[in-house]
Each structure stands twice: as C-alpha cells, then as structure tokens.
Amino acid sequence: MRVASEGDGKAIPMYAVVMAGGSGTRFWPLSRKARPKQFLTIVGEQPMIQATCERVSTLVTDDHLVLVVGREHEAETRSLFAGRPVHVLVEPVGRNTAPCIGLAALYLQRLGCREPVAILPADHYIADADTFCRGLTRAERLAAEGSIAILGIVPTRPETGYGYIEREQGEPENGTFRVARFVEKPAMEEAMKFLKSGRFYWNAGIFVATPRALLAEFAAHMPEFRHGLDQLGPIDAPDFPAQLDQLYRGTQSISFDYAVMENPLHQVYVVPADCGWSDVGSWYSLYEVRHNTEQDEAGNVHQGRALSLDCRDCLVLNQSRGMVVTLGLKKILVVNSEDALLVADLERSQEVKRITGLLAESDSADLL
Amino acid sequence: MRVASEGDGKAIPMYAVVMAGGSGTRFWPLSRKARPKQFLTIVGEQPMIQATCERVSTLVTDDHLVLVVGREHEAETRSLFAGRPVHVLVEPVGRNTAPCIGLAALYLQRLGCREPVAILPADHYIADADTFCRGLTRAERLAAEGSIAILGIVPTRPETGYGYIEREQGEPENGTFRVARFVEKPAMEEAMKFLKSGRFYWNAGIFVATPRALLAEFAAHMPEFRHGLDQLGPIDAPDFPAQLDQLYRGTQSISFDYAVMENPLHQVYVVPADCGWSDVGSWYSLYEVRHNTEQDEAGNVHQGRALSLDCRDCLVLNQSRGMVVTLGLKKILVVNSEDALLVADLERSQEVKRITGLLAESDSADLL
Question: Nearest CB to B343: which of A329, A349, A358?
Fold first, then answer.
C-alpha cells in the first residue's frame, strides 16, 4: 500500500472522498443532465473525475477512494472506474455538500477508517499536482491530530466569485496557520484588500479531517441528519436505498462550509497552496486554464477538427465529426457537439445558464 | 402559349438563356463543388436557378427556357426541372459567359428561333419581379428591332464592386437610353460621382438580343470560336460532346462584357430597372438581401433551428439537424451544415475564399 510520508518519515494511510454529485449546466452544450462537467474531458486527457483521482494517486490508493455520485451517474462512474477497487456511494438526490460529506464519513467510519480523509470536489482543475499533494500531506498531519485542515489557494487576482479564508496573525507552524474566519464572496474593493493583505486565501472546498471529527461536527450542527445517518441499516441491505432516500428527502440542501465551517467544534487550520487551482466555473474560466498551456500565437485555444483565420483569443471546441472554421473573430466561444452548437461572446459565457433555462421552456428539452 | 405584351398589344414570344455554369465557393460551407450557389436555397423558398426561371414565367414558357450548366450539375438540374419541357445545354468546362452565350445562341438559331432572348444569370436576387419583367419587356422590343438591350440597375449606393453602364445624354425613348460606355469597377470617388450624376447604372449582365445579333457579334469579336460553333454537328449526335469539349478547350475563358460589349457591332440600349437587384456575391450581401424582409427587432436573420440571446445584426443559417444557440454576438455569421461549420465576422465574409484555398491544401478537400 502506498502511503503519504513527509519529513519525519511517519506514514499515514490516506483516504479521499471525491464529491461528484453536481449537475451543472454551465458547460452546455457539452454538459447535459446525463453528463455533467465532472464527466467531461474539457481539460487534459481524461474526464475531470478521473483526473481528480489521478492527481492524488501518490497519496491515495484506489481502495481508499470513495466516489459519491448521483443515481443517474452511477453507471457511467462504474464504467469509468471498471476493474478498480474504488468505493462508489450513490446519493438519491442532490443536497449540496454537507449531506454528501456526512454520508461518506459514516460509510468510512463503518469501514473502520480512523485515518484522515481528503474531501475533494470532482470537477476542479489543478495545474501543479505536486504542490497540491504536498499541501494535502500537511493537512493530513493536522487532521491526524484531530483538527480540520483546509487548503487555502493563494489568490492571484481580486476575484469576487469565490469565498475566502482569513488566517490568524502570526508566524506559520510548519507552513500552516489557524483560521481566523471564513468570508463569503466579497465586493471588488474588499477583494482587493484581501489580495494586498497576504492573509487571505481562496476557499476551494478542499479539506482533510477524520470521519470521527466530521461526524462530531454533524452531531453538533445537523443533529437530526446525524441521527438519521446512525439509523441507516447496512449499506448492502436491500432497503438501504429506500432508507437513504427518505433521509435525504428530509434533509435540507446545504453546503458544508455554511453548515459546519462557520462555527466548527474543531480547530481549523489553513494550509496555503499555490498550485494553479481553478474551479473551472464557466467557459471563460476553462479558456483561462487552457490558455496557459495551449494557446496559439494569437491566443486561441482549439480542440478537435478546426481551422482558424485571423482570430484572436477564441476558444473553439469541436466534438462533432465535422470541420469548424472561424474567420476574423475576437474573444468568441464556439462549442460544437453532434446535436447542438453554441457561439457566444467568450466574456459572457457565464450566461449560458440563460440558454438552458430557455431550452427547458421551449420544445428543446431533449438538449438539456 | 403565354407571350409578352405591353402598350401596343403586339406580342412577341420570348426566350431565355439561364446561365448556371458557375462554380463559386463564396457560400462555403453550403456551396460545394457539387452544389454551387445557383443550386442553393439561401434566399426565398427554392434554389436560385428555379427562382430565376419562376421570376420570368409570365414572359417565358418552359419550352422557351434554355438552361446552360456544367457537366457535373446536369443531373441535379434535370432533377430540379423534372417533367418540365425546358432545354438543358451542358458545357464541358467553364469558360466564363462569352462561350456560354455563343453556344446558347447557336442552339437557339438551330431551333429556328428568330425572337429576342433574355440572357439571365442563374444566381441573382431580384426583390421586385414585376418591375424586372417590365424592364425585360422593354428590352425585348428593342432586341426585336435588331439592337442589344441591357438592363441598367438603378444604383442605390456608391458600390465599387460592380461594373457600370453610362447612358448617353438626352431624353429617354420609351424609357430607354443609348449606351455611352461600359465602365469597369470604379474607385470610390468615381463611384460617388456616378451615383450623383444619375446617368450610370449597375451592369448586372442581364440583356436581351436575338440569336442572329449575338452570333454576328461573335463573328466579329471571336471569329475562331464562332467558326468552331458552325462546325459542330447535330447536338444529339453521339460525338457532339467530344466536339464541344474540343471547341471549349481551345477557347479562352472570357466574359461577354469584355469580349463583345466594349465594342459592339449593334446599337446597345440600356433599360433602367429599379427592381431591388443583388448579385448575392457574399454572405454579407445575402444578409443585406434577407435583412430587408426577415430581420428580427435586433437586426438578426435566422434560418433553421436557432435560438438567439442578446445578438445584433447576425446572420445564422442552420442546415444541420442540431440546435444553434448564439449569445451576445454582434455582426457575426454562423453557417452550420451537417459536415462543416463557419463562424465569421459578417463584414469579412468575402474572405471565405481563403478558407476554401486552405481546405484544398489541407487534408480536408472532401469539404470543397
């Protein structure tokens, strides 16, 4: 078994929970209900959920991986990980991250896991996997001692679209800091102060804790849900899905950040990580991520059969069999799939949600 | 038989030659080698070659229609006009308009036609068919008296992309003028003077003359070609295609304007026609034509399954089965076919030729 090791040579087996329950439509027309972002190959060579597992493969063996997915994506997940001894947990309905993490913590506790567990969103991009894994290893040591340790992404711009983590004043202990507070998405002026201060980090929702610590937090903050978890029968029992369905339907949709992190029982540490992270939250964000490594001399990023004349700063993704030709465009997004095409101002690509809304109202719900 | 009549009630049977030998690629990805512009339904409800015939159907009966097409388009032409007694002449290779008109004149002379013949490009757009036909009828009367009568399109802008016809000074005779000279594409300053003077018309290459007059012009200006025409055996003889092939291969590619009209034997008249003409020479030109009747409140023109959000002055043609969605675009052209997609700055759409050039050099010649 491969295990994490750093510094003192002491090795701790590490687990990871990969949260893949999202159902986003921000990457329409590639993302669909049946295939959300974490199953798309939009950066790199494999679907994001596989890349997420691959990235931590030096720390986490397959049999320590727990993938949490929606019911409608179970088959695709099992297919992608066929022949690998990963664990797959199926959520009956999406209820944001808190119930997902609670279910995974219960599952791991029942497996007998007392070791730290990394909680990883399945659909983020990280340019520097080595730096990322070093951060996780540091976080793991803090978690093994009973704390919750969250990665703090070193900010590179005054981003107003992310939550922030403020560290306490003072010197780091082994490269980590106590967390002073979590801050919701700030206004631009505040974001610029955060960036300048050097004491704020982006909250990527990536953290490490033991199942025991997590379940204690749920007992304190979501006691009814925690009680429901305890009442669940064996996971391989025939009525387990129905029990879980009942529990989930009675539970509010709430993020772990909001439910727990704002007022945790445990000491929370932040481990700064300058690892080239992006949540890849829009086509524009994807362009920025791919732009760093793939742009041509005019700033264009192409995928698939495509020909470009006199274009600048365009993102052209062609997943159809046909040819895509672009001429004289600037900052335009072209995404071509077999049954739908999107052409948009790249800087307005966050408005793709409006499209899926309109399609739902029209007679084109087949394209969702 | 329907015949033309105007004013004095005298009726002349009218013939028409529809020149459909073009092989343009300016409407890529819809136009292909196998299907040039005249076979596309890009404006109105039918292919342009059919619309051209339909437009003069009050003047020209089917059995007086001569369609001149390239060898590779004979089958499609016969299919489009199946069951109709039109004449189809097949050119072995393209040699511009002069040989095409010479061949048609010979064919009609052999049929015994002594009446005026309207020469019509197969791929032009005319908004006002009534005004157009009134112009042809006037031209027909002049042609019946032994002249060549050319339609002069009343200019609406200082266009530098067309040739012009200058009329002689003086009062019109029955709405027509003698031609002073033909002018090649002018510079902008000159074009503005033309527009202001009121004595210049756009040369659309649409004129009326008898086969006899036409053949006399060829005898004077292209004597070798005319001699070759005279040597051709019967059109239904087995070796006729080979004879015609030999004649065409030995003939230069030259326009009728250049070969004949610059120095004609016959008197040439211009018949002014303010009929909403366009040669539809580019995607932008098509946008202008369709824009007049089809634009939405934001100046967009759509065809096919398409959804538009916050777009202005865009042309979106979708001939694929899938959905096309556009978001936040301005003056952008989107043309989607089953095997190729073009997205371009609408005002640079004349550069489509560069694309077909690049495709020819690449491994994508199947898309030409």
Answer: A329
| Amino acid of residue B282 | S
Instruction: Please indicate whether residue A175 or residue B166 has the higher confidence score (pLDDT).
Output: B166
**What is the pLDDT at residue B6?**
45
Q: Are residues A83 and A18 part of one domain? A: yes
Site from B309, B317, B343, B347 to mutate, A interface, most A CB atoms within 10 angstroms: B343
Q: Specify burial of residue A112 (Cβ count, 10 A radius: 0-12, 13-18, 19+).
A: exposed
Q: CA of A348: which chain B residue's CA is closest?
A: B328
Spell out the alpha helix ranges (H) of chain B.
Answer: 48-55, 74-80, 97-110, 129-144, 188-197, 211-221, 223-231, 240-249, 256, 283-294, 352-361
Question: Are B10 and B23 contained in the same domain?
Answer: yes
Backbone φ and ψ for B38, nearest 5 degrees, come out as -65, -15
Residues of chain B with C-beta less than 8 angstroms from the C-beta of A352 = 327
User: By CA distance, what is B368's nearest residue in A?
Assistant: A323
Facing residue for B341 by CB, picked from A29, A309, A336: A336
Q: Report CB contact under 8 Å: B307, A367.
A: no
Question: Do both A128 and A157 map to the same domain?
Answer: yes
pLDDT tens digits for A259-301?
999 899 999 999 999 999 999 999 999 999 998 888 899 999 9
What pLDDT is attached to residue A10? 53
Average pLDDT over residues B199-222: 98
Instruction: Tally the domains of chain B.
Output: 2
- Per-residue model confidence as pLDDT tens digits over B5-41: 444 445 678 999 999 998 878 899 999 988 999 999 9
**Distance of residue B290 Cα from the nearest chain A Cα, in angstroms:** 21
Q: Which of A223, A248, A278 is the last residue of a domain?
A: A278
ipTM: 0.88
Cα B47 from Cα A52, distance rounded (Å): 53
CA separation for the pair A91, A72 (Å, rounded): 9
- Per the CB < 8 A criterion, the answer to whether A179 and A170 are in contact is no
Q: Using one digit for the tens of pLDDT, what is the confidence trace for A91-143?
A: 999 999 999 999 999 999 999 999 999 999 999 999 999 999 999 999 999 99
Regarding whether B258 and B115 lie in a shared domain, the answer is yes
Binary contact (B348, A327; C-beta < 8 A): yes
- Check residues A362 and A251 and name the one with the higher pLDDT: A251
Give yes or no: residues A144 and A190 share one domain.
yes
| Residue from B283, B300, B309, B327 to probe the interface with A (highest A Cβ count within 10 Å) | B327
Residue A11 has pLDDT above 80, yes or no: no
Q: Which residues of A touch B (CB under 8 A)?
A: 29, 307, 309-310, 318, 320-329, 332, 334, 336-345, 348-349, 351-352, 354-355, 358-359, 362, 364, 367
Examine the domain organization and report whether A318 and A269 are in the same domain.
no
Say what percent of chain B tops pLDDT 70: 97
Q: Are A344 and B328 a contacting pair at CB < 8 A?
A: yes
| B329-362 tens-digit pLDDT | 999 999 999 999 999 999 998 899 899 888 888 8
Mutate which of B325, B332, B334 to test chain A, going by most A C-beta atoms within 10 A? B325
CA distance B324 to chain A (A): 5
| Interface contact A343-B327, CB threshold 8 A | yes
Q: How confident is the model at residue B1 (pLDDT cuts 50, 70, 90)?
A: very low
Whether residue A315 sits in one domain with residue A267: no
Q: Which of A332, A339, A351 sits opposite B343 (nearest CB)?
A: A332
Alpha-carbon gap, residue A261 to A180, rounded angstroms? 11
Q: How far apart are CA A299 and CA A316, in angstroms?
A: 11
Residues B218 and B329 grouped into a single domain = no
Domain span at residue A106 reads 4-278
Residues A35-60 as b/e (b if ≥16 CB within 10 A, e otherwise) read ebbbbbebbeeebbbbbbbebbebbb
Distance of CA B285 to the CA centre of its chain: 14
Work out the mean pLDDT of chain A and round it to a whole number. 94
Contact B314, B333 (CB under 8 A): yes
Q: List, for residues B169-191, the tens digit of each pLDDT value.
A: 988 888 899 999 999 999 999 99
Cβ contact, residue pair B341, A340, below 8 Å: no
